[in-house]
Design goal:
By secondary structure, the protein is α+β, with helices and mostly antiparallel strands.
Length: 235
């Protein structure tokens, strides 16, 4: 079975269709030993999901549900999903999270235009968050939503920011109570108590080590300049 190194975890699954196979290629590894995560979902499951969601192909169902299983299991390894568009600049990852349609990708595209080669997209929709030796990293994964904007690298997180649309650009740092609802609405939430408790431990550690912000923004390039200036100087 093919092996992939995703967020530092040896992950086994065998793609049946082209979408998952193509997007997973850059994560292939020849690492030995027991896999950290093994995903083996029957073809019949994807076919059933396609019947339930006729706007999707079986190919797309495989891609979506293998990704969902990966994020269900990564919690066991101190990691989680944050639905976000993540941009890397000067060696730090800045994660911009919001519900679909608010403008995550629109905002990070401003960073690319404003800062040129200093910035690049790590993952445009579903990066992983995972701690390594007490430091949290944003990690590229094969699971990147509709676009294939994802690279196979892990980068220390500089800040996490929740976006809201506004006429004027403003940014403010959030406290732990303000983070909780926003974070849980944009991650994969375990359905079992033990998994949820592990996710809460991860979030508590994140809050102690990573600054969180709310950015009210429009599509003016000044929004990128403001966000970078404030978040890159945060402690």
């Amino acid at each position: 079975m093919p092996r992939y190194l995703i967020a530092g975890l040896i992950t086994e699954y065998a793609p049946r269709f082209g979408l998952l196979e193509k997007r997973s290629e850059r994560f292939l590894t020849d690492a030995d030993g027991e896999p950290d995560i093994k995903i083996d979902i029957p073809l019949a499951f994807f076919e059933q999901k396609q019947r339930e969601h006729p706007t999707l192909t079986v190919d797309e169902c495989e891609y979506l549900y293998v990704g969902g299983e990966f994020y269900r299991l990564i919690v066991e390894h101190g990691g989680c999903l944050l639905h976000s568009s993540t941009v890397v600049m000067d060696g730090k990852a800045y994660m911009f999270s919001a519900p679909p349609g608010v403008g995550k990708s629109t905002h990070t595209s401003l960073w690319l235009k404003e800062f040129g080669g200093r910035a690049h997209i790590l993952n445009d929709d579903k990066p992983a968050l995972r701690g390594f030796d007490g430091v949290f990293y944003a990690c590229g994964t094969p699971f990147s939503g509709k676009s294939d904007l994802s690279v196979n690298e892990k980068v220390p997180v500089g800040a996490i920011c929740f976006i809201e649309r506004a006429k004027e650009n403003t940014i403010e740092r959030l406290g732990a109570k303000e983070i909780l609802f926003r974070f849980f609405s944009q991650t994969h939430r375990p359905t079992d108590r033990e998994g949820m408790e592990k996710l809460i431990v991860i979030l508590n550690e994140l809050c102690s080590k990573i600054p969180f912000y709310r950015l009210n923004c429009n599509t003016d390039p000044e929004a990128a300049r403001l966000a970078h200036r404030v978040m890159s100087e945060s402690k």
